[in-house]
Amino acid sequence: MKQDKAHGIVIAPNWPGQSWYTKLMTLTTRFLFLGQANKILEMGQRMKDMDQKLPPD
Superkingdom, according to UniProt (predicted)? Predict the structure, then answer.
């Protein structure tokens, strides 16, 4: 996006501990915090079958 000077919308979790998070924040000009994952996301059957959890609050 930066090299092509493209505009876009990225929907990503607020996970500061992830390696990609810092790079994403350097590309960001504006952001909108939607809220805690457990309040806006619904876990799908595949995640349930794999015994995965939503990100922490």
Answer: Eukaryota
Asked if 54 and 38 count as a contact pair (C-beta separation under 8 A), the reply is yes
pTM of the complete model: 0.51
How many whole angstroms separate alpha carbon 15 and alpha carbon 31?
14
- The 10s digit of each residue's pLDDT in 3-37 is 788 888 888 888 889 999 999 998 888 888 888 87
What are the boundaries of each domain within the chain?
Answer: 1-57
Token look-up 């349930």 returns 48
Q: Let me know: does 40 contact 11? Beta carbons within 8 Å.
A: no
